[in-house]
Amino acid sequence: MATEDIKNEESNIEETQVNDAPDNSEEVQNETETAENSPFAVGDTVTGKIFNIEDKFVKVQVDDSDYEGIIPISQLTNKRIEHPNDIIALDDAVTATVIKVEDDAKNIIISIRKLDEQKAYEDLKQKQDADATLEGTVVEAVKAGLVLDVGVRGFIPASLLSDEYIEDLEQFNGQTLEVKVEDIDQEKNRVILNRKRIVEGEKSKERQAELEDLEVGSIIEGEVVRTTTFGAFINIGSVDGLAHISELSYSRVNSVEDAVEIGQKVQVKVLDVNPEQERISLSVKQAGESPFNKFIDAHNTGDVLTGTVKRLVDFGAFVEVEPGVEGLVHISEIAHEHVNVPGDVLKEEQEIEVKIIGLDSDNEKISLSIKALESAPAKPKQAKREENTQVYTDDTDDDAPTLGDVFGDRFKNLDL
């Protein structure tokens, strides 16, 4: 999800998050003030020991100085507490950051919360850069998602909670979730978290493991989860495989819905597995016994059968001789006379008798003939041709003709 989309999605809960955060007391409104003569400056880190606990603040004797540190209750922790005693006790050693220095007294306002938050933001930024996983505790479920404690208050939009829609967000209250950092804006105290990527990653590992365990040729049970014009997607655990429409039945399938329906349990044979692309090719028809093999075992070349014309093509007709078993009557085997197109002689769904003239078990092909059941018509007798042959003979004994033989009297009137 784009950062802008995430910001838009959570805009309606920002006010709630701000109101739920601990209130700052008057003492910490001006956090940039620093006394000129003080040895401390805003942003310094100090250590000390708690020597006084009041309802709204605690006092700390700052190490190596005569200064007292005052920690308002709102600066003890980012959690909502009723009294400092809920999380702290006398003589506890603390580390805090200076947020204000008094001008006329040896007092500094310090904050454990801000120091913890700064460290938390630094850690979150490192986790984001490394795309690392961290844990957070759900402190509140709101309409748009979950608020988590990850050192600071973080938020998971509902759309980044899982790869599936989750209606009841209250079920996560108090749970510790693994998340990744999606976006950080420290100035606005905004931390967007993402659990969806972790869920997707875990499921991807499960799919890869399952894909690697699948054996080509194995027969397993699956459930039809989706149909398309070209086949059916069948769930076989954490992955879906595709059974092409041609692999749904040995009978011709015009529509996928004619062969299977969503929710149906089916036995499938694994034809191919591609773990890298997470693709599985399945076959429903090959998970059962082939009707062709049964047909081959029960029939021989020369058998005469009754079949039904199922399809007419330019080169012949496909005839169903048993459920799921079709053979081809080539156009040259339809009749003894010349046939221009099979449709001139045959019609779909017409019942006819055919003779087996060829069985190809390797390619599962059956060759049929109609004309083999009919006697060939007698050939018409051809009339004898009368021949008037004139024979010309030459009785001369000369082998070569003379000029006179060739030109005769053509030269007799010439005046030479």
Automatic annotation (TrEMBL):
<feature type="domain" description="S1 motif">
    <location>
        <begin position="43"/>
        <end position="113"/>
    </location>
</feature>
<dbReference type="GO" id="GO:0022627">
    <property type="term" value="C:cytosolic small ribosomal subunit"/>
</dbReference>
<feature type="domain" description="S1 motif">
    <location>
        <begin position="131"/>
        <end position="196"/>
    </location>
</feature>
<keyword id="KW-0689">Ribosomal protein</keyword>
<dbReference type="GO" id="GO:0003729">
    <property type="term" value="F:mRNA binding"/>
</dbReference>
<feature type="compositionally biased region" description="Acidic residues">
    <location>
        <begin position="23"/>
        <end position="34"/>
    </location>
</feature>
<feature type="region of interest" description="Disordered">
    <location>
        <begin position="1"/>
        <end position="41"/>
    </location>
</feature>
<dbReference type="InterPro" id="IPR012340">
    <property type="entry name" value="NA-bd_OB-fold"/>
</dbReference>
<dbReference type="InterPro" id="IPR035104">
    <property type="entry name" value="Ribosomal_protein_S1-like"/>
</dbReference>
<keyword id="KW-0687">Ribonucleoprotein</keyword>
<dbReference type="GO" id="GO:0006412">
    <property type="term" value="P:translation"/>
</dbReference>
<feature type="domain" description="S1 motif">
    <location>
        <begin position="302"/>
        <end position="371"/>
    </location>
</feature>
<feature type="compositionally biased region" description="Basic and acidic residues">
    <location>
        <begin position="1"/>
        <end position="10"/>
    </location>
</feature>
<dbReference type="Pfam" id="PF00575">
    <property type="entry name" value="S1"/>
</dbReference>
<protein>
    <submittedName>
        <fullName>30S ribosomal protein S1</fullName>
    </submittedName>
</protein>
<dbReference type="GO" id="GO:0003735">
    <property type="term" value="F:structural constituent of ribosome"/>
</dbReference>
<comment type="similarity">
    <text>Belongs to the bacterial ribosomal protein bS1 family.</text>
</comment>
<feature type="region of interest" description="Disordered">
    <location>
        <begin position="374"/>
        <end position="404"/>
    </location>
</feature>
<comment type="function">
    <text>Binds mRNA; thus facilitating recognition of the initiation point. It is needed to translate mRNA with a short Shine-Dalgarno (SD) purine-rich sequence.</text>
</comment>
<dbReference type="InterPro" id="IPR003029">
    <property type="entry name" value="S1_domain"/>
</dbReference>
<dbReference type="InterPro" id="IPR050437">
    <property type="entry name" value="Ribos_protein_bS1-like"/>
</dbReference>
<feature type="domain" description="S1 motif">
    <location>
        <begin position="217"/>
        <end position="285"/>
    </location>
</feature>
